[in-house]
Amino acid sequence: MKDFNRMWVDGQWIGGDAGTRPVTNPSNGQTITEVPEATPHQAAKAIEAARRAQPAWGALSPLDRGKVMHRIAALVREHADPLARLVVEEQGKTISEARGEVGGAAEFFTYFAEFARRIQGEIFPSDAPGEQIWIQRVPVGVVVGIIPWNYPAALVSRKVAPSMIAGNAIVLKPHEETPLSALYMARLFEAAGVPPGVVNIVTGSGSTVGAALTEHSDIDLVTMTGSIPTGKRIMAAAARNLVPVSLELGGKAPLIVMEDADLDLAVASAVTSRFMNCGQVCICNERMLVHDAVYDEFIRRFVAATQALNVGDPMLDSTDIGPKVSAAELQKVERIIQVAIDAGAKPLLRGGRPETPPVKGGNWLMPTILGDVTTDMAVMRDEIFGPVVPVMRITSFDEALRIANDSQYGLSAYLFTNDFARIMQAVQDARFGEIYINRIGPESLQGYHTGYRNSGPGGDDGIHGLDAYLRKKTVYANYSGRSPVGLMPWNGRKA
Asked: From CA 67, how far away is CA 393, in angstroms rounded?
């Protein structure tokens, strides 16, 4: 895979002055290839390239920018199979999930390209005659995008597409463990005719390259998806330069099942939401709150459905769960399980590492379900990000809502009930940025993926996600031929 030994900056393929880093296949532990490691100096050069490129790109009509983006979407679809296989190789999710991710990566470009005729300004009447007040939406300028490892292709599009249609230039750093999809997509950007410097893909570690990008004084926005500690560091760094940030920092989604719920729907949804992408999704079902009246039946069905899942080679269509992304992540989740059991949680289904792994050398972990949990346990409070789920009995909807809201996170929540009053109470009182009622994610392009509390300020998708990539400019357009100063009501003089 020699094609991945260069990163894309200012329309050029360049090596990393800090050397290279291996990328490992989570299924077998083998090195796939080596990718370049940028230096902070190279990160700064990428920002300089974006700064040079942005004015000309922003001066194009949105329709012309959209044409380039439609070409990108077409190329992503044309290369869907090799890109999906690359996602599996570097990240470990199943091939069926990877195909869905790549389809989403293309859809981001199609969706945001359609905003070419929809970026709206406003006109207000002035206090003075012969004058109008215009509020325009204009590009912020230079964007830095930081993405995690769980959706290495789709999250490239999620950051790059709105940046492009808004007229910005962007420097994007993929996670060091999963940079290959971003580098592959950079070749598609080049083939689509993206002008040099409008999109730059810089690879390297978060502690050096990521820090150099987010601490830079000549950027206009940082948009990042990742962990709370990283988000706090980025927010502090950006604050020193008064750079706005948009952060999505994970979640601890409660899944509430009431006694009147459709149990077939609730069980199937809970299984999918917990175990998709090996549980490595920010909106995953992270804690289940099940009404006592249906608890035993729900658990019986949930355990059976979980046991029926096929943990195996993610390149096979028959596989439901692939490996964890890395050995470090595997060990982290193993510690979470042990701490919970030591604190009194009861394994309703004990997973752990399989005796015979589907593929030798991989980061394999079987699903675990934990009962007898209490709200003060770490497993009920901290994000797991793996194929492990705690389940707790509740006796009322008020109790469920209280437990759900008692969290440092506030990204997504799920409710299964047919009681309209409960539904409306959840809409009003559940303190989460996304609420799914009788369904699960993924989120829709036209929605707004946002969280409360430590899930981070800002968000992605839809018109509200796009708004982060635009700033407002107010214009006082006087066409009367005379100064309006004497006409202002606070001026204290008569016209």
From this structure: 53
Selecting among 248, 286, 434, 443, the annotated active-site residue is 248
What are the start-end ranges of the E strands in 18-67?
20-24, 31-36
Neighbours of 6 (CB within 10 A): 18
Residue pair 227/250 in contact by the 8 Å Cβ criterion? yes
Q: Which CATH architecture has domain 2-249+456-474?
A: 3-Layer(aba) Sandwich (3.40)
Mean per-residue pLDDT, 269-295: 98
DSSP 393-423: EESSHHHHHHHHHSSSEESEEEEE---HHHH
Check 282, 286, 329, 434 and give the catalytic one.
282
Q: Is 248 a catalytic residue?
A: yes
Rounded Cα–Cα distance for residues 301 and 107 (Å): 35
Give burial (CB, 10 Å; 0-12/13-18/19+) of 391: buried
Q: State which fold the 253-437 domain adopts.
A: Aldehyde Dehydrogenase; Chain A, domain 2 (3.40.309)
Q: Is 299 left (phi over 0), alpha (psi -120 to 50) or beta?
A: alpha
282 given a catalytic annotation: yes
Count other C-beta atoms under 10 Å from residue 392's C-beta. Answer: 21
Q: What is the pLDDT of residues 408-423, one digit of tens each?
A: 999 999 999 999 999 9
2-249+456-474 and 253-437 in the same fold: no
For the chain, which residues make up each domain, given as ranges? Answer: 2-249+456-474, 253-437
pTM for the full predicted model: 0.95
